[in-house]
Amino acid sequence: MTDHDHTQTYAPDPAFTAQANAQADLYDAAGADRLAFWDEQARRLDWSTEWSEVLDWSDAPVAKWFVGGRLNVAHNCVDRHVEAGNGDRVAIHWIGEPEDDARDITYAELKDEVSRAANYLSSLGLVAGDRVAIYMPLLPEVYIAMLACARLGLTHSVVFAGFSPNALRQRIDDAEAKVVITADGQFRRGKPAPLKAGVDDALSGNGVDAEGTAESVQTVLVVRRTGLDVEWTDGRDAWWDEVVPQQSTEHTPEAFDSEHPLFLLYTSGTTGKPKGIVHTSGGYLTQASYTHHNVFDHKPGQDVYWCTADVGWVTGHTYGVYAPLSNGAECIVYEGTPNSPDEHRHFQIIEKYGVTIYYSAPTLVRTFMKWGAEIPAAHDLSSIRLLGSVGEPINPEAWRWYRDNLGGGTAPIVDTWWQTETGAIMISPLPGVTETKPGSAMRPLPGISVSIVDNEAKEVAAEEQGFLVLTEPWPSMLRGIWGDMERYRDTYWSRFAEEGYYFAGDGAKWDSDGALWVLGRVDDVMNISGHRISTSEVESALVGHRAVAEAAVVGANDETTGQAIVAYVILRGNVDAEEDRQKLIDELRAEVSREISPIAKPRDITIVPELPKTRSGKIMRRLLKDMAEGRDGGDTSTLSDPTIMEQIREKGTRG
Ligand code: PRX
């Protein structure tokens, strides 16, 4: 992604500015008094007890925001809209993957459904602070389940339904979840695929290498979605439709402390073990609500809002569920893939429901580009008035294509930088206020403090690359890594400990106009279609196969997915026949898919005689990355054996 044209800028359209939620004075207000600014933003929400202090940073790096304040997140996302007389508004237009399978849920209906689910979960004896794992496709029940947890102060841990039983088990054990909420199966490209079976495997340990016991799990609650046959464990398993609908719709939400943990979300770090990122309530919802209002220019009762992310990722949490519902939005929730039954699906949905705000990812935009401009052109997309992008740097070509073909050549694009850890958007243009440049996230939002520094924590000059750091705490920041506060300090706060900066793990630069460009990860984390996967996770899955002695994995540029996973493996014994080597490569791909998820499957696997190592035995990934990206190797003088790259090139078997 190097075609950065720093000169091309798009000024805000005055007509947009005239009606925009955010005005330029937002920057001034935050600049004048940051904490007073956040104090004001928190008043977007309903609190049952007011806070005594905006921020307590005395226990840094663990922040307390809105100290002593009490609120109920589900009340803020559901009940208060009903109480305000907007119960008849649609909260969710749910659209199933099979055509004509759709359901609209109003805020009043959502309140009843969430109350029923909350009453059921309480009947199990769960109490505030208990953990609930949710392993589900994008069904209405996933929203209901998350909000029911929030209502009761249960901490949910949503696990992407594309993750393997192995990955699910790891997350269940780490959080000691008492309940798993799942579905019998999910529709994928027109076919039902089992899901409950994966939960059974995860819990019984079938095909799973787990250290824990999964003994924490007492109940598996199953949504009937596909009608697929499922195995049943009496006393543990319950069908949602047999236990939830008969519950009462009366449920009084209790207010919880602002710092009560709302959810855990596991994300890849630089080691094989995923990190359970901890998010709390008041600060999280404040920043979620504030950013959704200002960055997406959302107007309740007018806009139809679609965030295309799956709920298994942080974007699906913050901008699929909590932020839009806190603002009383009318949301599109689509269960399936964008090409089911064909490539017109997203555009048909936009046209049919009159979507006005569309928030998606560069990888999908590039996929649309490949399918061709005639597909969006066949639909009336004129309702769209704002486009968003998240997950990876958007290349300028994709940015322009997005604006021209989905945004009628006029819609502002908000390129939003943030992370699972930040909880909500941190860097983005404000539509109607900030001018935009294709490929740049432009500038930190009002209330957010960012710097780009060198190794010595000195701010770099314009056009120089450095490390992206956050220099002040922010309300929706993570409060730790579940069960491992030391790793929390080490990972994010040790690099610039003296200055107290949060190290984001991304490289970035300012251009000469002061626009911020995010340049990608500077650690061993890959970004595949906007999904974070660590090289060591994939390496450990590969060496888990009996035939593999050693593996090295790198992320290489890929036209559609941003990065692709490229693996180099050394075998334990001799496998000489080409056919056998290819078969083994297929097996290795399947192994990674089984261990982690199909999304972690390497694009290329090369069987090599050796790996490039320094004299001290460290694998030189840079050389492998060069090779994977088709560049002729750089400096090989530090290699223990300088001929290695030649050998890999000549003797490697690629599949
Ligand atoms: O490298 C950055 C990239 O995605 C990482 C965060 O990944 P995750 O926690 O999975 O959250 C993704 C959705 C918020 C970041 O460290 N990233 C995210 N958004 C952008 C981005 N890179 C460039 N531009 C963005 N807009």
Write the layout of secondary structure elements.
Layout: H1 14-19, H2 25-32, H3 34-42, E1 53-56, E2 64-67, E3 70-71, H4 73-86, E4 90-95, E5 102-106, H5 107-123, E6 131-135, H6 140-152, E7 155-158, H7 165-175, E8 179-183, E9 185-188, E10 191-194, H8 196-204, E11 219-223, E12 237-239, H9 240-243, E13 256-257, E14 261-267, E15 275-280, H10 282-295, E16 304-307, H11 314-326, E17 330-334, H12 345-353, E18 357-360, H13 362-371, H14 374-377, E19 386-390, H15 396-405, E20 413-416, E21 450-453, E22 466-470, E23 480-481, H16 485-493, E24 502-510, E25 516-521, E26 525-528, E27 531-534, H17 535-543, E28 548-558, E29 562-571, H18 578-595, E30 604-607, H19 621-628, H20 644-651, E31 653-654
Parallel strand pairs: 4-17, 6-7, 6-8, 7-14, 8-11, 11-12, 16-17, 16-18, 18-19, 19-20, 29-30
Antiparallel strand pairs: 1-2, 3-13, 4-5, 9-10, 14-15, 15-23, 21-22, 22-24, 24-25, 26-27, 28-29, 30-31
Helix pairs in contact: 2-3, 4-5, 4-6, 4-11, 5-6, 7-8, 10-11, 13-15
Adenosine-5'-monophosphate-propyl ester (PRX) binds next to helix 11, strand 20, strand 24 and strand 25.
